[in-house]
Design brief:
ABC-Tungstate_binding; signal; alpha/beta; Substrate-binding domain-containing protein; PBP_domain; eight-stranded mixed beta sheet
């Protein structure tokens, strides 16, 4: 993605986001994060409390992890909160990010039609579940957007030494919410983070068919954009938000957040 297009995307995301206001620039922070933290409702819940405590307004750019990290690489945001440990490590090693901190985790789940035509619920592990979908050529909707969820999905295919090119594999280039909606409409399988699933499940004709596997662990980190590389970033405000997320109040709020009575994330800054 060239610089002009990326900056246009940044502007469009800011303008379309509900947190965008004409606040004092010294009290505004730009956060690039995943669609899962946004669509689940967690960010609205957390950032309202953060503003009360700090006075800062947070402009949220909700996109896939790959694009969120790219925004950080270009200095277009002040911090990122993502869920792809390998990509995050590279982001830090290349000098784009500093002060990585664990914030929380949830897990991924494999969802699909209630009749489970590929019998994935009968498999012994998530690799076998994916293999059954490919073997029987059942419809699978992939986010296809370089998000953390997409990269996790590709890693599971790779564990099976399967290249997902079977005829019923669809790569749609969408966020988690639209991908789930499409999978429901088409009665397809898809991989989703549990948080977005819980937020959307009542409007979907899908069920969880496979869960609780070590490969499905889904950790989130918050990372500051390196002010030595990008002096114009709002390092002070970003650090205040990072501190707030990992300190007792932020961690307690994460654990207390519920959708339909169920917790979506587990705070783990102190682990």
């Amino acid at each position: 993605m060239n610089q002009t297009l990326l900056r246009l995307l940044t502007c469009l995301l800011l303008l379309s986001n509900s947190h965008f206001t004409f606040a004092d620039p010294s009290l505004r922070i730009r956060l690039a994060t995943t669609t899962s933290t946004y669509h689940s409702g967690l960010l609205d819940y957390l950032l309202d409390e953060f503003k009360k405590d700090s006075g800062y307004t947070v402009d949220v750019l909700a996109t896939g992890t790959g694009k969120a990290l790219k925004l950080g690489e270009n200095g277009d945001v002040d911090l990122v909160m993502t869920h792809d440990p390998k990509a995050e490590a590279q982001f830090i090693e290349k000098g784009y990010g500093i002060l990585p901190r664990k914030v929380m985790y949830n897990d991924f789940v494999l969802v699909g039609p209630k009749n489970d035509p590929a019998k994935v619920s009968e498999q012994d592990n998530i690799q076998q579940a994916f293999s059954a979908i490919a073997k029987h050529n059942h419809l699978f909707i992939s986010r296809g957007d370089e998000s953390g969820t997409h990269k996790k999905e590709l890693a599971i295919w790779q564990e099976n030494q399967i290249t997902p090119i079977f005829s019923q594999y669809r790569s749609v280039g969408q966020g988690m919410g639209p991908t789930l909606t499409m999978a429901s409409e088409m009665q397809a399988y898809t991989l989703t983070d549990r948080g977005t699933w819980l937020a959307y499940q009542n409007r979907l004709d899908l069920v969880i068919l496979y869960q609780v596997d070590p490969l499905l662990f889904n950790p989130y980190q918050v990372i500051l954009v390196n002010p030595e590389r990008y002096p114009n970033t709002h390092y002070q405000g970003a650090k205040i938000l990072s501190d707030w997320l990992v300190n007792p109040k932020g961690q307690q709020l994460i654990n207390q957040f519920r959708v339909h009575g169920q917790a979506l994330f587990v705070a783990n800054a102190n682990e």
